[in-house]
Amino acid sequence: MLIVLITTVDILAPPHIHLGPLLIVAPALTASFAGARGTAAVALLAIAALTVIGLARDGLTTANHQTQLGAQAVVSALIVGLRVLRDRHERELARVRTVSEAAQRVLLRPLPERIGPLRLASVYLAAEAEAQVGGDLYAAARTATGTRLLVGDVRGKGLSSLGDAALLLGAFRAAAHLHAELPDLAAYLDGSVSWDLAQLAEQKRISSGGGGEEAGESFITAVLLDIPDDGTEVRLIDCGHPPPLRLCPGGPVALTARRPAPPLGLGELAPARYEVEAYPFGPGDRLLIYTDGVIEARDAQRRFYPLSERIAAWYGEQPAALLQHLRVDLLNHVGGHLDDDAAMVVVDRCP
C-alpha cells in the first residue's frame, strides 16, 4: 500500500517534485517485522515501482533516475543483508535458549508438587536474559525417615557458575539418603565442594602461569533442611545463607541460626562438627527458602526488595500461587531485570 501510494503521488506530482527516493522506507519498515525473504520481496517491488515512475515521467535514460535506481538497489541490498544477519543471530539465540532449557531440566530438576507429607513449589529467575539457569540451586531427596532439602547460591551468577552448582547438586543427590545425620551430610558436601574448587583453582593457576583464582575465592552459601515425616519440627544447618522464613498469620519469622557455619567450599573454616538448629514446623505450617538475589534486588531508587513485608499479603495462597505473586512483584520492583540470580522454594507440611 505504501509503495502504491508513493508511486501514484510521484507520477501525478509536478515535474520538479521527486518522491521516488521515499520508496526505500518500504523495505526498511518490512525488515523490522518480516524475515529476509519478505524484506527482499518488498525491496524488489520498490525498485520496480521506481522503474515505473521513471518510465511514466522522464524515462530511464536520465542521470537522475539512474542515480535513484542505483541508490535504491544499494540501500535495499544493505537492508536485506542486515536482516539476514539478524535472522542468523535469532536462530543462534534460539539454539542457546534450547540448550539452556535442556541444561535446566537435567541439572535443576523441578521439585515434585508432593513429597512425603510435604507440598513443594519453586521458582527460578536467572539474571542473564539468555540463560534459564545459573548459580542458584535447589533439590529435594527422600530418606528413610523424612525429606531433605538443599537451597544454595554459588558465588557469581549466570552460566559461569553452572559447574559449581552441578557439583553440589550431584553430591547432594548421591549422599542425601546415605548419611543418617545432617552434620555428616554437611561435612560431606563441604569436602566435595572444597576438593573440586581446589582442583579447579590449581588448573587455573597452571594455565595462567601462576596467576589463577585462589580456591578460597569461590564458595557456595547453602541451607540444609531435614524434615521428619512424623515430627513437628524442621532441623537445619545454615552455611552462610539467608535464613528461611516461617510463614505465620502474625507475619513471617526468620529461622536465624544461632551458630551459622561458613559457606561450603571454605573447608579450612568449617567447624569440626556442624551444629543442627531445630524450629517448630507442624501440620499446616509453611516455609519460604530463598537466595540473596531476592532480598538484594533493588529498584530504581536503589531500595532493597522488602520480602518480609510483601509476602504477608499472600500468606493464605497455595504454594504455586504464592510464588507466582512473589515472582511478578519482584520483577516489578526491579523494573523487569535482576542483577543476580534468584530462587525461591515454598514448603508446606500437609495437615
Explain this structure to me?
- The chain is an alpha+beta fold and 351 residues long.
- Helices cover 42% and strands 18% of the residues.
- The protein has nine helices and eleven strands.
- It has helices at residues 2-12, 25-30, 36-56, 63-107, 162-175, 182-207, 292-295, 307-311, 319-334, and strands at residues 114-115, 118-125, 136-142, 146-154, 220-228, 233-239, 245-247, 253-254, 277-280, 286-290, 342-349.
- A six-stranded antiparallel sheet has the order 1-2-11-10-7-8. The chain has a five-stranded antiparallel sheet with strand order 3-4-5-6-9, covered by helices on one side.
- The radius of gyration is 30 Å and the shape is elongated.
- The protein starts with a helix and ends with a strand.
- 36% of the residues are buried.
- Residues 212-216 have low confidence and may be disordered.
